[in-house]
Specification:
The protein is of the alpha+beta class. It has one helix and seven strands.
Length: about 70
């Protein structure tokens, strides 16, 4: 049985509170209302990331040291 490959993706400012079926942590916005945490890293499979990448709510995260 082979492991499913997951890659890191950063949440962008276009994201909602849920991305690829995962709840995104929140930060307080300028108006003190909760907003999704921009830059939060999700580890997704290619299939999970496909739609979210097309919608612009995530972007590939550069590996450490790159």
């Amino acid at each position: 049985m082979s492991a499913i490959e997951r890659k890191p993706y950063k949440v962008t400012d276009k994201a909602g509170f849920w991305v690829a079926g995962q709840k995104i942590p929140t930060d307080k916005g300028e108006d003190d209302l909760p907003k999704p945490r921009v830059g939060y890293v999700l580890h997704l499979t290619a299939d999970e990331a496909k739609h979210e990448l097309a919608a612009g709510v995530i972007e590939p995260d550069a590996p450490a040291g790159a």
